[in-house]
Specification:
Order of helices and strands: EHEHEEEEEE
Strand order of the largest sheet: 1-2-3-4
Number of helices: 2
CATH topology: Purple Acid Phosphatase, chain A, domain 2
Distance between the termini: 49 Å
Largest sheet: 4 strands, parallel
Radius of gyration: 15 Å
CATH superfamily: Metallo-dependent phosphatases
Length: about 130
Amino acid sequence: MASFVYASDLHGNQESYERLFEAEADAVVLGGDLLPHTKGTLESRIEAQRAFARDYLSRKFGSRPCYWIAGNDDWGCAVPLLENGTPIHGRAAPFLDGLSIAGYAYVPVTPFGMKDHDRYDSDDWSPRV
């Protein structure tokens, strides 16, 4: 029987990613908030996520099967740089032992500044200000 490890909210913590990818498992599943949550200007925060996705996490994804969804702290413009893994937002993908896996990356609207993955639940819903 195949096995997998699941993690979420690693926020770019390389030590946690190293331990995760060292685990004895056939696949890795990541449930969002993959990229660093940094401080600074908007441009520097976006670039930090883009660099991490491109230069670090995509390489980790190449080490074994990895299925992932973005989280509310992952900038939409950095997500396309995640190569080698299998994005599962809004779709099913073949998984282990002939099963399928699917994901949903949206979250209810939050009071935080980043809005790339917020979703209104109904037409008459409005955020609290």
